[in-house]
Amino acid sequence: MIFADSSDFHNLAVDYARLNMFDCAIWVLNRGLALSPYSSDLLADKLLYSTEGGQSDICEEAYTQLMSLERSSWGWRAYSFTLDYYLDKANRLQKGEKREKIKENAFSLVEDFITYSKLYPEDTDRAYFEKAKIVKAFGGKETEESVLQSGCMATLAASRCALRLADILFDRGDYDGSLNYLKQCIHAIQGPQPGVNPYYVFLLSAMSKVSKLFNESPDGNYDGKESAIKSIYKDFNTVLTDREINPTYKQAAETAIKVIEVQTGVRDTTSPIINEEYI
């Protein structure tokens, strides 16, 4: 006998999927669906992992089963993973009738997701973030940026929307704009389940600040800017406290600290990791 509910099967499937063991994840989900055949979460998981595992037959089966359920039974996973399914299919098609149908379905579903999120405000950020992805992929009257801005206005907890906007503005060279959205993002990641990687938030904050610092001091004169420089070090060292740090983040933070020290003459004294040579 199996003593478990749909959440237990979901959690076990996630563990397998994180190891890229999609066959095992789907096997677990099928066991869960044998007990809870109308679980939108388990069907959404099956849709996601069969898509990621390249198992098109299982993917189409999961999609058909999910779409047969009443929309009122859907949670955020059903909306989000179905939209990912549409994007995956669209990316495999050239312009034409089939792609236009997927576009139509995607826009219809994402508007339903926005409506759903009004009843479940904790999913508002996710709904607008998904809509921005759909707009970016298919185009339309709105832009990715305008949709993300709407998400940030709809909820202060819009960590996904705020971080994506910060990325866009950083790439554009608008460092003040990037930092403004990162402030909202930092506010939003204080909960137990942040929607984004908090260490990446602080990495982007540090990179925005240092880019702004160098732009404002083309002559290499950093007099009176020691406080701003220490704020940059603090953000970089926050990134370096991550025990499972992404190697790319680690290299970027360590390299930037050394460059700033040489360029500004202000030594970073806050990080024992970086400054062991000075002890």
Explain the overall architecture.
Helix 5 packs parallel to helix 7 (124-138) and helix 10 packs antiparallel against helix 11 (198-216). This protein has helices spanning 6-18, 22-35, 40-52, 56-67, 76-91, 97-119, 124-138, 144-154, 159-172, 175-188, 198-216, 226-239, 247-264. Residues 274-279 have low confidence and may be disordered. The longest helix has 23 residues, at 97-119. With 279 residues, it is mostly helical. It is built from 13 helices and no strands. It is 70% helix and 0% strand. 38% of the residues are buried.
Which key terms come to mind for this protein?
elongated, mainly alpha, 279 residues
